[in-house]
């Protein structure tokens, strides 16, 4: 009987972290039914963050009316954790309200997509007496520098501008779960790096970048300081910048924050294998993404680490980085639409882990 730790990120648009891990557990138990399996739903601040952090911290979920990136009415959720000290922490996953998955390919217009809904969630959490916030900045459809979020707060607090409402935020403590290193503007900024995947063409990227630069210059004159070049300012289309510049948010690595919250290192005693993964594994996996953070922790304890993914490239680099095996769950030439089917994906995760463990045990 072996001991396995499952810490697998969501397969975006297909399976949540918990769903991937449930399939992985079935695959392991098909070979070793008495295996000790510790399953940890995880997220680095992007899609699946709310579920993962709530599971780790034992929070409740609040469902509220707000607006999506196109300002259409929707219902979105955030978590509330009652901490030991009696204060409340809100867990906000921005993808819940302004996520790219909420806007079809045909509807995407990054020039009008707004972060307004994030401001609505922050306001609602404040009305529930939350004074601490953990905000995950992954997977947004927006590139408005957080202006929409600020406008929502101004509107909800019935102010004319931010100066008229800023006292409301004086006692807030905001942590931004983010592994994006990019500044707000410039060649490595939000518009140039992330704009195209949100539907922006070359001219729109240039316009968005000019907007961001102008907004940062105006904000710096108002506050007397400038957060636009700080690490993470370009996250979520510049929402990271607004949260730092206007609400004094502090960026922490989403990976490290998640692993510390679940006391990951304490779960590694007597573990045979750590199994991690994500939807697509390639050289970018090694640039601070969740599976690499998990690999780094496991290797400190000399624990073998397996990486699974729906798509795999740069396999040699991944193995050279320390993964003991890199497994693609999908057969070659499987149609992408079929591969993205949740039932198919779960079945393939299960089959992949069963095959791998049988091969390991036969050695």
From TrEMBL:
InterPro entries in the record, alphabetically?
Glyc_kinase_flavodox-like_fold (IPR018193), Glycerate_kinase (IPR004381), Glycerate_kinase_RE-like (IPR018197), Glycerate_kinase_sf (IPR036129)
Q: Report the protein name in the record.
A: Glycerate kinase family protein
Sorted alphabetically, which Pfam families does this protein's record hold?
Gly_kinase (PF02595)
Q: Matching NCBIfam families, A to Z? A: glycerate kinase (TIGR00045)
Similarity-based family: Belongs to the glycerate kinase type-1 family.
Q: Which organism is it from?
A: Hoylesella pleuritidis F0068
The entry's keywords:
Kinase, Transferase
Q: Name one GO biological process term.
A: organic acid phosphorylation
Q: Does the keyword Transcription regulation apply?
A: no
> At the top level of its lineage, which domain of life is listed?
Bacteria
What GO terms are given for molecular function? glycerate kinase activity
- Key word Membrane present in the record? no
């Amino acid at each position: 009987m072996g001991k396995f730790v499952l810490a697998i990120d969501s397969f975006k648009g297909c399976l949540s972290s918990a769903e991937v891990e449930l399939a992985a557990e079935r695959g392991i138990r098909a070979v070793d039914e008495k295996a000790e399996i510790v399953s940890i739903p995880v997220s680095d601040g992007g899609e699946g963050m709310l579920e993962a952090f709530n599971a780790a911290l034992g929070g409740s979920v609040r469902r509220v009316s707000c607006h999506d990136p196109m300002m259409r009415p929707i219902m979105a959720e955030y978590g509330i954790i009652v901490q030991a000290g009696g204060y409340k922490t809100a867990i906000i996953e921005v993808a819940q309200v302004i996520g790219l998955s909420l806007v079809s390919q045909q509807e995407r217009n990054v020039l009008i997509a707004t972060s307004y809904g994030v401001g609505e969630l922050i306001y609602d959490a404040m009305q529930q007496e939350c004074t601490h916030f953990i905000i995950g900045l992954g997977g947004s459809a927006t590139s408005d520098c957080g202006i929409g979020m600020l406008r929502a707060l101004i509107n909800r607090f019935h102010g004319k501008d931010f100066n008229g409402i800023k006292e409301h935020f004086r006692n807030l403590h905001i942590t931004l779960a983010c592994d994006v290193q990019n500044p707000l503007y410039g060649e490595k900024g939000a518009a140039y790096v992330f704009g195209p995947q949100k539907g922006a063409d070359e001219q729109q990227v240039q316009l968005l970048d000019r907007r961001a630069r102008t907004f940062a210059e105006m904000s710096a004159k108002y506050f007397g300081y400038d957060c636009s070049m700080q690490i993470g300012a370009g996250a979520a289309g510049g929402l990271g910048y607004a949260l730092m510049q206007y609400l004094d948010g502090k960026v922490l690595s989403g990976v490290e924050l998640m692993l510390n919250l679940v006391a990951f290192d304490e779960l590694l005693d007597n573990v045979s294998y750590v199994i991690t993964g994500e939807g697509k594994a390639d050289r970018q996996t090694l640039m601070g993404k969740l599976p690499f953070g998990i690999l780094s922790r496991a290797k400190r304890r000399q624990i073998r680490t397996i990486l699974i993914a729906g798509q795999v490239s740069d396999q040699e680099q991944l193995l050279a980085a320390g993964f003991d095996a890199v497994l693609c769950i999908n057969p070659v030439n499987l149609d992408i639409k079929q591969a993205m089917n949740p039932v198919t994906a779960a079945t393939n995760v299960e089959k992949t882990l069963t095959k791998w463990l049988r091969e390991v045990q036969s050695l």
